[in-house]
Amino acid sequence: MEGIELTAFEIISSVGAARSCFISAMHSAREKDFIEAEKLIEEGKQHFLMGHHAHSKLIQEDAAGNHPTINLLLIHAEDQLMAAESFKILANEFILINKEIKNLKDIK
Fold it and tell me: What is the rounded (10 degree) CA torsion for 8, 14, 16, 22?
């Protein structure tokens, strides 16, 4: 496997791992393990960054006039990239909300 297919799989693999980390971070926050939640967020960000870099290379190639072949695999990779980014945003908010709830309970 080479070219666009390999890059698409790099994106899918990286952002899939990132999404798993973000979901696990939410589970940790629900259990009030905020240290683990933050660790998982950071791990997820690293995986996401790898996928983002692979995606950026495709964009740069396209801008240089080397237009990639658009296929279902590439569309799936971009969909997974966007979904992982959404999970990152939601996980961060979920952690903050759980911290606020815990702080309110600690005050009482």
Answer: -150
